[in-house]
Amino acid sequence: MCVAFPGRVLEIYGDFGKVDFGNGTIKDNVLLSLVNVNVGDYVLVHAGYAIQVIDEVEARRTIEMWEEMNNGISNEKRKQDFYEAIGGKL
User: In which domain of life is the source organism classified (predicted)?
Assistant: First the structure.
């Protein structure tokens, strides 16, 4: 099963960029060259790659559902699960 998580593009530098996934979670060096994206757009990220540009409303809805599912889970476990979902390390 593949999991992709939405985030907002903060910066673009070459083929890569900085993406904000909410709650202070920001990842540098997300590959953006697979999609036509601008700063401020929301993208789905899987394994460090932006695979699709998505609507802001849908992105926020997904982020809210993620928060609801993780209610009651420690911050450390939440971070670990998140980074595994987007293909990164703590």
Answer: Archaea
- Pick from 17, 83, 90, 13: which is nearest to 50 by CA? 17
| C-alpha to C-alpha distance for 17 and 50, rounded to whole angstroms | 10
C-beta separation of 26 from 17 below 8 A: no
Largest CA distance in the chain: 39
* Residue ranges per structural domain of the chain: 5-86
Beta strands in 3-72 (DSSP E): 5-13, 16-20, 26-31, 42-46, 49-54
Under CATH, which number does the domain 5-86 receive?
A: 2.30.30.140
Q: How confident is residue 62, by pLDDT bands cut at 50, 70 and 90?
A: confident
pLDDT digits (tens, 9 = 90+) for 25-52: 899 999 999 999 999 999 999 989 999 9
